[in-house]
Request: fold
Amino acid sequence: MCDTASMAAILTRGRDLRRRFLPVVVAAGGLIALGLVVAAGVVLERRHSEYGEFFPGRFPERLTYCDGRGYLRGSPEARAEIDLELVAAGRTPGGATIFRSKDLAVVAGGTLCTTIIWAGDPDDTHLVHYTLLGGP
Reply:
């Protein structure tokens, strides 16, 4: 059997261990939380610099297409007003289909890059157009 003095020594030792290691555990938890916040900030900043908004929808402000070239969003157009033959060429981050003209293209490093692309669903009556930023 344990006497009162030995029980008190055991309890005191447990309190001493808690007092010694609790600040270390709290500091480690704080550093982990700070690391997660910094990582989330880096990811959000990268998305914002790539798409022009933190959470891009179906039609982001900026698109990267054709060997990393930037395209800036314009206004919606009725599909009937576009008198070019369009072909599907990719997808936006939000899932809309990217269309390009079969005819209009510039050569950039051996790749044909159109100066204007459109985004929308294949059965939509309106498409959003994007124009190439910068030159060929």
Remarks:
- The mean pLDDT is 77.
- DSSP finds one helix and eight strands in the chain.
- Residues 20 and 63 are 53 Å apart (CA to CA).
